[in-house]
Every structure is written in C-alpha cells, then in structure tokens.
Structure prediction request, 705 residues.
Amino acid sequence: MAQNTFNATIKDEESKEALFGVSVYFPQLEKGASSDIQGKVNIDEIPNGTYTVLITHLGYESIKLEKSFPINQQEELTLFMEHGHEEMEEVVVSSTRSGRTIEDIPTRVEVIAGEELAEKGNMKPGDIRMLLNESTGIQTQQTSATSYNSSIRIQGLDGRYTQLLRDGLPLYSGYSGGLSLMQIAPLDLKQVEVIKGASSTLYGGGAIAGLVNLISKTPGEERELNFMVNGTSALGLDLSGFYSERYGKIGTTVFASYNKGTAYDPAGIGLTAIPEFERYTINPRMFWYLDEATEINLGFNFTTEDRLGGNMDYIAGKTESGYFESNETDRLSTQFDATHRFSDHSRIQLKNSVSFFDRSIAIPSYVFSGKQVSSFSELNYVTFGEKMEWIVGANLWTENFDQRQGDPDNDLGFSNTTTGAFVQNTWNMASQWTLETGLRGDYQSQYGSYLLPRFSLLFEPSEKLTFRTGGGLGYKTPTQFTEDTERLHFRNILPIDFSATSAERSTGINLDINYKWPVTGDLSLSTNALLFYTQINDPMLLQSTNNGMYAFTQPKGYINTQGVEANMKWSYHDFKLFVGYTYADVNEHYDNEATEYPLVAKHRLNNVLMYEKHGDFWVGLEAYYFSPQKLSDGSTGQSYWIMGIMSEKKIGKYFSLFLNFENMLDTRQTRFDTIYTGNISDPQFRDIYAPVDGFVVNGGFKLSL
Prediction:
C-alpha cells in the first residue's frame, strides 16, 4: 500500500506567528504529532485514502479537516487557528478605571471570576472569606475566638492596610470594617479583583498593602434568575436568590439572602467556634440606559444581623451567667453611578455612595456601641487613543463616628474629611512596552497634605512571556478601628491624640513574571512569580499603660514585608493542578532591633487538583499548609495542614447539586493548642492562628432559570 506524508505549518490567525505544541491527530489511524517551534508538523506513513484530521491547541478553536491521500506533489498546508472564545474570553478590569483587559494593563491585577468564583462560592455561600483565603499572599485573620470576626491580610500586613471596595466604592472602612467579611454573600458577584502593593493613586489612603474590589453583576441581554440553598453539618443554613433582566432602556438586579448559624462547639470546651447568628440582606439596583452614550444606575444595600457567641450554656438559656459576645448590626448603603461617553475614545463618570453603620458589641458588664456615617463622591474623565490614555479625577470622603455607649471619659468619636485629585497616564511606548504613571494629591482635615506618585511597567516580549514591575507611595491616617482594638471589643481604649500623631507612610515595589508554556498539544503550564517589598514608617501601635488602659503610640521605626508568591497551573485534558507558594518575611524594627511580626505564616502552600467535565461535573481536592506563626504573647503556634474535597454535578439544564468536605483532617487550634487562659466564666483569649470550627460538611443545590 502506498505511503504518504502530511506536512503543515500552523499559525495564529491574528498575529500570524507560528504556534508551538499544536496537536495534529488522525483518529482512524491513531497517528499524530505536535508542531515544533516553527509551527511545522510532519506525519509519515499515511496510507492512501480519505481521513479526518483534528488540530487542537489550548486556548484556540479546534480545526477539523477531511484530507484525501495521495496529495499532489506532497503539498504543505498553512493553517491559521483562531483564539478560543471560552478559554480566551477577555476579562475587563474595573479597578484600574481604564477598562483595559487584564492582559493589556501594566498594573498586576488578580481576577477571580466565572467558574472559579462559583466553585469557591459553593464552599461558603454565606460570606466571602473562602474567595480570598485560598489565594497566595492573602490570609483572612480571625480576630475573635467566639464570634468569628475576620479581616483581610495581604502579604502579611495588618488588615487596616487593605482597602475593601464594592464596585470601586469604599463601603467597608472604619467601624464598619469589623464584620464586613462575614456579612458579604458572593452570589451576586461578577468577579473579584485584587491589586497587591501600593494602590493609593486612584483610591487614596488605606491601600498600602493592596485592595480588594468586589464587582457586582449587571443586567445582560438575557434574564438571569439564580437560587442557592446550602446547609452545613454545623447546622448552618444559607438561602440566596439573584435576579437580573433588562427591559429596553431599563434594567434591574435584585439580590436577597438569609443566613443562619447555630452555636457550634466541636472541641467540647463549652465555647462557640461558630456563633449563633441570623442575617438578612437585600440589595436591589436599577439601571437606566438613556441613550447609547449615557447610563445611570442607582442601588442600595441593607443588612441586619444578630450574632451571639461565647458560653454554650448561656446561649442555650441553661444559665443566666457566663461569658458571651453579642454583636447587633444594621448596615445601609446607597450607590449611584452615572457614565456618559462623548465618543468611542472618551467618557466622564460621576459616582457616589453614602453608608450608615450601626453596631452594638456587648460582653459581660460592658457594652460598646456607635454609629458611623460615611460618604464618598468622585468625578473622573477618561480619554484614550491608540498610544495614550489619560484618567483624571477628584474625590471627596467624609466620615463621622458617634460613640453612644462605652467609656464616657474616653470617647472614640471623630469626624474628618479628605479631598483628593489624581491623574494617571498609560503610554504604549512600543509594541512590547507599556508604561503607566500616576500622581495623587490628598488633603486630610486632621493630618494635612500628601503627594503620592506610582508607576507600573509592562514588557511583553512574546505571547508566552510577560514582565511587570511597579511601585509607589502610600499613607494611612491613624484609626482606632484595628484588629487589636477589635479583639478588645474597644474596651479601655484611649482616644488617639491627633495633635501628637502623624500618618503612617509607606513605600512599596514589586516585580511580576508570567510564562505560558504549551508543553504538548494536551499539556500546558502557566507560571507566575511575584517578588514584593513594602515598608511602613512610623506605624501606630496599641500598647497597655500602667493603669490597665490601652493607648496608641507611634515610636520611631518601621514595619517591612518582603517575599515571593509563586504559582503554577498545569492543564491536561479535563485535569487542572494549581500549586501556589507564599514566602512572607514580616518584621518590626524599633530601637535598632528587628522582631518577627505576629500572626504571619512565613511559608504557605496552596494546592488544588481539579477534574472538570465542562457543563457537567467537577470535583476538586485541596490542601493548604501554614508554617508556625509567632503570637502576640511571645510564643509560637504550631504548623498545620488543611484538606478538603469540593464537588458539583449538573443535572439537566437548570439544576445542579454541590457537596463539600471542608477541613477533613479536623484541624483545630483546640486540638493542639489553647485559645484562652483562665476559666470559662472569664476567659482571656489568646491569638487565633488556626481554624476553630474543624471538619464541616456543606452541601445544597443551585437552580438557574
């Protein structure tokens, strides 16, 4: 039988560059090969006849050909592959305000979206801790042993240096930040964007360690109606619903949820690891599309919650005395956004939010309560062309906290305003180089003026390799709402002396390297490494005084964090393996001495193995390692592993079931260490550096109509 050779050169449809590692396969003959670095592929010993040829490559649309052999003169084909619509879907980043795609911006932005967002949302549908804690460089730090309060730490720095935003609006700062992570459900989120390092040019003081921007869903061309029901082995219940639709020039989204927790004590020590709580949330938004150039949206969010942790017998009503921690909160915020496009290359935007937060914290023989009213307004203008983009704007923050209960001799109330103006330029210097520079000027009513420059540089020598570097200055005005005061329930805290303190100043820089390697047509590797350094000068410290009070001091010195984040993603057919490592070396420097910063795992591993049949079924195995952490009392906590299994099965077009086994090793601080000293009636709590809730199973169903 005659033998033939198949010769082809395979290129990218847009760039016309040769594609390496493209799989070419003859199913009937069970023969195949992969393209070389020049995009060429040769397959020998093909018998005469007509055969199907399959050409596949990760991130590209597959090509299916029918070829008859012999081919006249053994001709060589040139085939062009188009980018796959699903794999290469462009993610537009909102946090940079430019509207560029994630591949095109010099600033390093991490995005959690699509199926990844849904998968993580399944694990804790009642709050967003799981969305963030599984990322390299991010740790959610529990600040209360009994009520579950938590904050976000980026690259080991205290939670007060991270700015949490909703659609670019700062709704969760100050007094309202203490329970934020526990009161945000993820079902109505489109994506989560994380920028690590100095981000103060666009967002002002507070974004020293970085920012987390929660992007809400907006009405699409098709109606969206989703419901989620989740139950846990700890007797928790989450009910969520989301509706979105557009009717011509009007659109709407409505999110509502009910979340309930039952007092849970897996250690049997008589204290809650999960508190008893009940929370209601409603978030409607209206959208007006006045014409093709003008869009306005208006919404409000209301959350009310009662949370009670502490002595199990007290919560069950079996005793009238015992330790407890009660949190009653009401949160109301409004959001307004109006955008007008003058042309395809320029637009102006006006946005505003007003936030009301009322919280009462009660422990035995002490109650602290207050009301925070804050607002944010901004006007920005964007113009862009093929080579240059400009963003200019101005904004105004107002914040007022009124203490109603607590120590009347030490009123923590305050009021201030901050005005700021900023300009940012993005310049496509050459085909492979893009430079982003920015400058911000702020005036804070209590602490004066600040000038904040920053830069980001993108170098893309090929589609496979990308370099980013950036840095800038930041500042944080002193606040009494920190992780330390939260642990103390704001008891015995002396007010900050504004005349004797100054803002904390920061300098940060990072280097980011990304490489995509199509090992074969079926196997690919994406790698990322981030080197970071941030230094905060004259940080505010909470220290005890001789009379049993706590005062904020500002000794001469600094805190610095330095390290590396490394990520690898292997993809092979329906399997994906994620491996992440974080090294964070955080130290305090005072009086020419350096000491390790507390509650930072210097070494962390994030490992996830996923098997996914798209649109049908997925299952994942995860394992996380935390190295020993120094504690505030000078001791060192133990290292530990957390493992879990997550899964979801699609049944029909509209229905799916999910089941998760979280913390299967039942890793708990109460198994290998203590969480308090003294007696259970008056516990003195230690730092929480490991989980306290242990092994929990959760599962439920999702309905999409």
About this structure: The mean pLDDT is 90.
